[in-house]
Design brief:
308 residues; alpha/beta; Serine Threonine Protein Phosphatase 5, Tetratricopeptide repeat; Rossmann fold; seven-stranded mixed sheet; 13 helices; binds S-adenosylmethionine
């Protein structure tokens, strides 16, 4: 019932009418709603879409005071502060996101992320690494490291405690979707990555390889990994190369994770990530088990034992 109300207002916003969505939210407002934090996030989105970002910050701040464990409130706050040119407040809110999700090392070690593509994954990753991905020591390979969010989480939560290694490949030039704004973040991606990895205290477990994954992977042919995360360029022509070059590097029984499986390129549908992933899955289907439902943004597969 409450979610029906939420979805109707969300639909109005998605249809490009934030004023209508806001009116609906305010007319139907119930202070005792069991989903008042999601409703407040939606109301803040409407306010932001109407250019009333300061009001949106106030609303989320008040709501967070009543619901301090809700990471979405802080995530939305971080985005708003960033849009308002308040990087210190954005960073503080982002660290609160991580603390809410059990990643206390982020505030404790003072990581600096201007844009966080990782925190939404934390609940699923925490579950997978507790239940499925159990290698110890564990050797991990990451394609696409950005400012080091996924890398520092892996070092803090998995590789540090279990032992093993983390290899990170990145051009540190950003992907095509970042090109318009990357120059304005005040530091290079590589500087932020280095700073954050050093702050984990586990930098000795991390190897950084700067350059295109499609080039580096050919040079890693003799290595094997327990977990490979493919989160670099999302164009199908790159995703397919990463998948084909990574598959032989994965131990039998090892895990490979694709990010942004539904990433779409306007006007270039042949480059949508899903086309590469569908081809890879159909060709290698007999060698793998898929462990996540098709609608999920991330696809986790396990290489069947016996396939080297
Ligand atoms: C979405 S970000 C990765 C986010 C990161 N995994 C995290 O969770 O914080 C994608 C990254 O891929 C990198 N990238 C894009 N094309 C690449 C390529 N061909 N080879 C290696 N890295 C690439 C970009 O520089 C960018 O840092």
């Amino acid at each position: 019932m409450e979610w029906d109300f939420y979805n109707a207002c969300r639909q109005a916003l998605n249809d490009g009418d934030p004023a209508l969505a806001l009116r609906g939210l305010r007319d139907g407002h119930r202070p005792d709603s069991p989903i008042w934090s999601p409703l407040a996030c939606l109301e803040a989105e409407c306010l932001a879409a109407l250019g009333r970002k300061t009001e949106a910050v106030r609303l989320l701040g008040d709501t967070a005071a009543r619901d301090p464990g809700n990471h979405w409130l802080f995530y939305n706050l971080a985005t708003l502060h960033r849009d308002l040119g308040q990087p210190d407040k954005a960073l503080e809110a982002m660290r609160r996101v991580h603390a809410c999700l059990g990643w206390h090392e982020s505030p404790d070690n003072g990581y600096v992320f201007t844009h966080d593509y990782f925190s939404a994954n934390i609940p699923a990753w925490t579950d997978w690494f507790a239940r499925l991905i159990l290698a110890e020591p564990i050797d991990c390979l990451e394609i696409g490291s950005w400012q080091g969010s996924s890398a520092t989480w892996l070092l803090d939560k998995i590789v540090g405690p279990r032992g093993g290694s983390l290899t990170c490949i990145d051009t540190f030039q950003g992907s095509s979707e970042h090109a318009a704004w990357l120059g304005g973040i005040g530091a290079t991606l590589e500087e932020l990555f280095d700073r954050n990895v050093a702050a984990t205290g586990q930098a000795h477990l991390c190897r950084k390889l700067v350059g295109r994954s499609q080039d580096w992977l050919r040079r890693l042919a003799e290595e094997r990994f327990d977990f490979i995360y493919i989160d670099g360029a999302h164009e199908a022509k790159y995703v397919i190369q990463d998948a084909l070059l990574c598959w032989p590097l994965l131990h039998p029984g090892g895990f490979m994770l694709f990010d942004d499986t539904h990433f779409e390129f306007a006007g270039r549908p042949e480059q949508n990530a899903s086309t590469a992933i569908a081809a890879f899955r159909s060709w290698f289907g007999e060698e793998m088990d898929a462990l996540t439902p098709p609608a999920e943004r991330q696809l986790l597969v396990r290489k069947r034992p016996g396939f080297d």
